[in-house]
Amino acid sequence: MRATPPARAVCTIVLWALGACLEVRAAPAQAALRFVSPQDGAPAVGPSRAELALELPDGVEAVEVRLVVDGELAGVLERPPWAFTWEAGQGDRRHRLEAQARLSDGSVLRAAVGTTPLRIQEVERVDLVEVYAVVRDRSGKYVQGLDSDSFRLFDNGRPQRIARFSAERRPLRLAIVLDNSLSMRGARIEAAREAALGLLDTLEEGDDCLIVSFSDTVRVLQEPTSDRRKLAHAIGRVQVDAGTALYDALWRSSELLEPFDGRKVVVLLSDGQDEAANGIEPGSLHTFEEALDRALRSGVTAFTVGVGRNLDEQRDRFGTRTLGSILREIAEATGGRAFLSLPARKIRRSFREIAEDIRNQYFLGYEPSDLARDGAWHEIRVTTTRPDLIVTARRGYYAPRADTE
What we know:
The protein has 405 residues and is an alpha+beta fold. Helix content is 22%, strand content 33%. It has a six-stranded mixed beta sheet, sandwiched between helices. Strands 4-3-6-7 form a four-stranded antiparallel beta sheet, with no helix packed on it. Strand 15, helix 6 and strand 16 form a beta-alpha-beta unit. Helix 5 packs parallel to helix 6. The longest helix is centred in the N-terminal third of the chain and has 17 residues. The radius of gyration is 27 Å and the shape is elongated. The N and C termini lie far apart (66 Å).
């Protein structure tokens, strides 16, 4: 037999229920809260954007809007735009998003949607373009604390909606690529090894790194790993040799980074042009154009460090480009930076600056509004709403081809 609660307990329950009814009133008939994104039943992966539309009658205002994802509070906003960034993970499970708007008249509006996991065949059809951007002011200082509304993104000159945004650090795969040709002997190779060891401090949980050296051939001294001991041992194995297969090194490093789902960064150090040990033939099987194309298609960000003097005066074997312009083009096209004509003593400083760039990246993701699956080049331009800020990001990407799906 169920026990009868004491009269005082019954009274308390009744009063609590009455108070709840008085506190949360029914919303006005004209009021409505709905999800603009994500749509109910749509897949979601990675940093995702939840947008809400709130319609209110005259005289009623929103006090706050809350977003709950899978039972946990994801954010609270007190003024529009009603947009949140949440983490959907690898897209391998369902998520439930619930929104609650508390209004000035005491009423509450609610809305909910559910996302679905990505199916294997859908993963390859998600036309999300990922852009990593670094923002500085005119004095060169990093600018932090920006949100997605601070950015403007253009694809072939057309404005795009930023679907995913994050200022949080994303997983990193770093390729340290060191020139070990004969001209790097002595202080240069020692400084390069020391700087590379310091760059390992950039790695955090979830990151990994690989070590590549190049002379007349490209050698992968350490496959991707998070083991600092193995990485340091590989760096210590970099010894001088003949020849400079610069373009093959960039091509191979990009190939190794391409499958990684996250930030892909190449730090490439070299002191000379691409040539064989005999000084007559090219050092690489790939051309400059092929290597840069591979880097762009692989979605890597390349930082280049040019060691030696007068790199903006020395020309390549064909006399068409200066060594400085080659290293500068690789970096700027992929969204990185070039450090040129450095003496050995400044190599470590340049690596420290590269590490700071890596730590201060914003992530922007968008689905092009007019993407044709034709393999064509698309130019990307990223700006901010503040004209005094300078944005560094990759110049563009190649659209996927329909015949490769």
